[in-house]
């Protein structure tokens, strides 16, 4: 059983999420529904939940400000939000999970399945990374939060040479022949790396760091020779955007 708390200042959002959890995720036991950050603080302290569904936009104390109250985060977080491009970008960059309102049952099931698979709270560095992005200080941080089977790694972006799709995972190839298996799809990695202008997707299976490209060899799509000795195919549909970078 997953012990959970929902946090949202809108009652109908709390009620809808409770109904969805009951119908589609019966192993999620909702111990409290909170309509403010202050009430959520009290409920989290009282119930010690495994998982918190956290609305971002709330009066007095928003979701990000609530997280700032904790020195360590002992619970997993799934943000719930209406479309907010900046907030979503910060959440993706920090490798945290979110659901868009109105919440789609299939997306909810996927988020809960992802939690079941890993059952872990965010590391302190992830929350710091998130809050730096939210507070407009993201440019000071040059690392990418990468979820792995063991937890998370903070990878310096300039050490990342290329990313390769591997079903629902992504292989990250770094300097010194180091490789990381990320528990993220290539699409999710692309969204995370969007803050770094030197990363570009050149194929449905590949993202490259343009600073690590040695040369481009022309062809139908062509291919790139990388600094680690590998070659990366370029798809015809992405060839033009790549050449614009050069």
TrEMBL record:
Biological processes, Gene Ontology terms: regulation of DNA-templated transcription
Domain HTH LytTR-type positions: 144-246
A GO molecular-function descriptor: transcription cis-regulatory region binding
Domain of life: Bacteria
Listed GO CC annotations: cytosol; protein-DNA complex
In-chain residues carrying the UniProt-annotated modification 4-aspartylphosphate: 55
InterPro entries: CheY-like_superfamily, LytTR_DNA-bd_dom, Sig_transdc_resp-reg_receiver, WalR-like
Response regulatory domain segment(s): 3-116
Protein's UniProt name: LytTR family two component transcriptional regulator
Species whose genome carries this gene: Flavihumibacter solisilvae
Phylogenetic classification of the source organism: Bacteria, Pseudomonadati, Bacteroidota, Chitinophagia, Chitinophagales
């Amino acid at each position: 059983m997953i012990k959970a708390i929902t946090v949202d200042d809108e009652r109908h959002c709390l009620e809808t999420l409770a109904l969805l959890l009951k119908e589609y995720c019966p192993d999620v036991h909702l111990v409290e529904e909170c309509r403010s950050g202050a009430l959520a603080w009290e409920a989290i302290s009282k119930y010690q939940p495994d998982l918190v569904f956290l609305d971002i936009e709330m009066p007095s104390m928003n979701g990000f400000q609530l997280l700032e109250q904790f020195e360590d985060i002992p619970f997993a977080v799934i943000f719930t939000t209406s479309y907010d491009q900046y907030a979503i970008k910060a959440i993706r960059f920090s490798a945290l999970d979110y659901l868009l309102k109105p919440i789609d049952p299939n997306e909810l099931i996927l988020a809960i399945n992802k939690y079941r698979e890993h059952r872990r709270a965010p590391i302190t560095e992830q929350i710091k990374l998130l809050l730096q992005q939210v507070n407009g200080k993201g440019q000071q941080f040059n690392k990418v939060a990468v979820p792995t089977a063991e937890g998370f790694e903070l990878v310096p972006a300039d050490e990342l040479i290329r990313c390769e799709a591997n079903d629902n995972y992504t292989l990250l190839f770094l300097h010194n022949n180091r490789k990381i298996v990320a528990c993220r799809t290539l699409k999710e990695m692309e969204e995370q790396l969007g803050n770094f202008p030197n990363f570009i997707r050149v194929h449905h299976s590949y993202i490259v760091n343009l600073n690590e490209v040695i040369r481009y060899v022309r062809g139908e799509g062509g291919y790139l020779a990388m600094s680690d000795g590998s070659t990366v195919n370029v798809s015809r549909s992405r060839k033009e955007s790549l050449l614009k970078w050069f």
